[in-house]
Amino acid sequence: MRYAEAGYYLEIDLATGNIERVATDPRLMELHLGGLGTSVKLHWDRVPPETKAFDPENLLVFSTGLLNGTPVFSANRTVVSFISPQSDTLAYPMMGGFFAAEMKYAGYDKIIFKNKSPDWVYLYVNNDKVEIRDASHLKGRGAVETQELIRKELGQPKAQVAAIGPAGENRVFTASIEQSRSSASRLGGGAVMGDKKIKAVAVRGTGDVFLARPEEFMKELQGVTDYIKYRWENPIKDVMTILSGIGSPQEMLHTDEKWHTENFAWGNARTRRRDFWTEEIDASWSKSQHAAVKRLISCFNCPTHCGALISHGDTPRYMAKCFGKLTYAMAAYVDDLDFSWKILQRATEYGVDSFSTPQILAFAVELYEAGILTDKDFAGCPKDKEGRFFWLLDRVAHREGIGDILADGVYFAARKIGNGAEAFDHNTIKKHEQLPVKLGTLDPLYFLMYATNEKISITQMEGQWPQSAFPTMEQREEFVRDWPQIPDEKFKQYVLDWELRGEKAIPYYPTPDMCSEIVDWMEMMHNIDDAVGMCCGMSSFCLKPPYHIHNYPKIISAATGMDLDEEGLKQIANRSRNLHRAYNNRKGITRKDEKPPADHWKRRFPELEEQLLSTYYTYKGWNEDGIPTRKRLEELDLGYVADDLEKRGVLKNG
Ligand code: MTE
Ligand code: MTE
Ligand code: MTE
Ligand code: MG
Ligand code: W
Question: Where in this chain does the record put each Aldehyde ferredoxin oxidoreductase N-terminal domain (predicted)?
Fold first, then answer.
């Protein structure tokens, strides 16, 4: 009997049409839990570093997390993993919604695609019945409409469908995979899916997931329920509204965007719009949002409502959440929020990442204004800001004209265009577009998160540490008073001592040693979330979340029957994290790649930054190049990884 996990992978060879249901080794859960953890192991074992994104050998893996399908609240993430066409590293965008639970109920922990299909297909999984079906009639259809068309065609209104739109079909490097209210967005999963000619994956499952010790499990869950209620009734004081509660950023609920609009240098521009948020804008944006949002919606088994059903004018209905509402309007320098709802609808149907794509469009406009792209490149493009963005989006999604070059993302497009275009590529990390945050003084914690994390996005790292020091001692005391989530009591003192200005302020405080401890803790919690399939919006992405290092071991133990304590859980998280690092090292990532965009902060501290990296690497058990040492790998039962890295010359002198 397997508990929590299904115990089977579904292996699909798209070249031969062979489908296999393969029982997994129970040891895998003990070593890596599930989700991202076991997926990293799978890629390490099967995909050698020479493999590129569009090689047939690149695996595309849809994975549930260890706790998906159990009653654990908000465990609803599907992790999609593959080698990214942008970064050439192991990418793992995620989606919530309802897909993961359905897959578990169908009896599979992972669906693994290898090779390429000669013709357009979609996969249909209905419990034990699995078919590769013709999708030629769906080619060119939107990522949202495809989901509905497939449900109708199958006569399965309850099937969950993850689909790509035209952007994925055309291998646009920022193509996403869309599913109900959710999206696996970043790093080009849609492009890899399109390259394999998979239009969609439809899943229906009606089986059970078993719990090892149900009574103990429900008792732990009761504690979580009580805490969620408590947190709702006691919002955290003196922090931004979106950080005061739990749930992924409540952008669909709140309308006050003063902080984001004025502090981010939106578009590809280097300047902030400091006085953007006027009373007029406040009124017009609130009105626009209240008119567009029909209702707030949640993912599978989640008590919060972070997404929204959007119906705007005569555009078809779709679902959105978080920063989507801001990224296009701000990138286009359009002050009317209505524009966002319209273009976001089209972008969702095309299936593109709403962080990277608007920046590619803004980059094109910047190049045009600088005379690097010309009227010839923009032939037929409307002159107004809104029309221009729609036009550019259409070109990118279909890889038409200049859109074909832009579709590779800012980094590659800049190099192809040349003629000074490289200077406009100033917001990528490891060849991947970031949210265009442009702030004042270097923040040492964010520096480490941006520079070193494998997701290549801070979303996977930040959350549990306050975004800035509290001005008064009373506020600090209030914050640390009730903080059971921390792994060590000393973190409280760090908050108490942390000042807004002076010696004990950023960039020198928290010190590099403290920063290492804090970042490592936050990252570890994200890794656990990604392995169990938890939405980090209910966990490591928030201040004082319901799930933490003290209750997770008990919940996981009761669900799976493993006897895990805190040390055991940390060991597993560190094992998977180091394996992921080693995988990317094997792909060529080293210290030289680990830097945030040059103008992310105005005031930089090169010496301190080097010291931060070195201190953090040492803390992690990595060498000066950012590669795990043999000693570290052996402590984590990863001796075979050290052997491989040495054989390849990636790891030198232990
Ligand atoms: N792109 C699309 N198409 N749809 C979205 O909802 N969400 C954005 C971004 N890109 C989003 C999107 C937000 S708010 C986040 S945090 C990241 O995707 C999440 O990245 P992931 O899906 O790759 O994990
Ligand atoms: N949960 C996990 N485990 N990992 C993540 O990166 N991103 C969060 C949230 N939950 C995230 C996550 C953020 S910032 C957003 S906006 C939403 O997921 C994105 O939801 P979606 O991926 O379902 O579209
Ligand atoms: N950072 C600051 N300072 N303030 C924020 O509101 N939002 C987060 C995060 N970082 C946020 C922030 C959210 S919801 C997302 S989705 C990520 O920024 C996206 O960052 P990325 O491009 O690095 O993934
Ligand atoms: Mg996502
Ligand atoms: W987000």
Answer: 6-207
The total number of structural domains that make up the chain:
3
Which residue's CA is minimally distant from atom 13 of ligand 3?
459
Q: Is the CB of 178 under 6 A from ligand 2?
A: no
Q: Kindly report the protein residue whose alpha carbon is nearest to atom 6 of ligand 3.
A: 260
In the reported structure, the alpha carbon of residue 81 is separated from the centroid of ligand 2 by a whole-number distance in angstroms of 15
Residue 325 in contact with residue 249, Cβ under 8 Å? no
Q: What is the CATH number of the domain that holds 33?
A: 3.60.9.10
Same domain, 386 and 529: no
- CATH number for the domain including 366? 1.10.569.10
465-486 pLDDT, tens digit each: 999 999 999 999 999 999 999 9
123 shares its domain with 94: yes
* 323 ligand 1 Cβ < 6 A: yes
ipTM score for this prediction: 0.95
Atom of ligand 2 nearest to the CA of 65: 3
Ligand 3 in contact with 457 (CB < 6 A)?
yes
Per-residue model confidence as pLDDT tens digits over 406-422: 999 999 999 999 999 99
Whether a cis peptide bond, with omega within 30° of 0, leads into 553 is: no
461 and 406 housed in the same domain: no
Q: Are residues 587 and 615 in the same domain?
A: yes
Q: How far is the CA of 206 from the centre of ligand 4 (A)?
A: 25
The rounded Å distance from CA 536 to ligand 2 centre is 6
Atom 21 (ligand 3) nearest CA: 457
Angstrom distance (rounded) from CA 237 to CA 186: 32
Nearest atom (ligand 1) to Cα of 249: 14
Going by CA atoms, what residue is nearest to atom 24 of ligand 2?
A: 182
Of the ligands numbered here, which is closest to the C-alpha atom of 323?
1
Spatial separation of the C-alpha atoms in residues 124 and 150, rounded to whole Å: 9
| Residue 239 buriedness (CB in 10 A; 0-12 / 13-18 / 19+) | middle
Decide: helix, strand or coil at residue 310. Answer: strand
Domain that residue 45 falls in: 8-204
Query: Does any domain span residue 595?
Result: yes
Looking at the fold, whether 200 and 250 belong to one and the same domain comes out as: no
Query: Does residue 34 sit in the same domain as residue 103?
Result: yes
Q: Can you give the pLDDT at residue 654?
A: 64
Q: Note whether 30 and 165 are same-domain residues.
A: yes
pTM for the full predicted model: 0.97
Paired sense of beta strands 121-126 and 198-204, if any: parallel
Residue 263 alpha carbon, nearest atom of ligand 3: 3
For residue 178, which ligand has an atom nearest its CA?
1
Q: Is 137 domain-assigned?
A: yes
Q: What angle do CA 475, 477, 480 make, to 5 degrees?
A: 110
Rounded CA-CA distance 563/462 in Å is: 29
Tokens of 309: 């059903």
